[in-house]
Specification:
A three-stranded antiparallel β-sheet has the order 1-2-3, with no helix packed on it. It contains two helices and three strands, in the order ββααβ. The longest helix has 8 residues. β1 and β2 form a beta hairpin. Helix content is about 20%, strand content about 10%. α1 crosses α2.
Length: about 70
């Protein structure tokens, strides 16, 4: 299961995580996976990487997408 940062702003992807499950667990529900993809600049919501940081809220800087 993705690990929530101490400040609650992002999660770190672990093996077996999906963007949909992260949305359910941390972003208010299934339908928010598209919002998470947009916030993080993820073109294909089915492709996230172990160790990738998924921001749960829009940040002031550029998105960090390691894929």
């Amino acid at each position: 299961m993705a690990k929530l940062s101490s400040d609650g702003k992002y999660v770190t992807v672990e093996r077996g995580d999906t963007l949909t499950q992260i949305a359910v667990d941390y972003a208010g529900g299934y339908n928010n996976y598209k919002k998470l993809a947009a916030i993080n600049g993820i073109k294909d919501p089915n492709k996230i990487c172990i160790g990738q940081k998924i921001y749960l809220v829009k940040t002031g800087g550029a998105s960090t997408n390691s894929s």
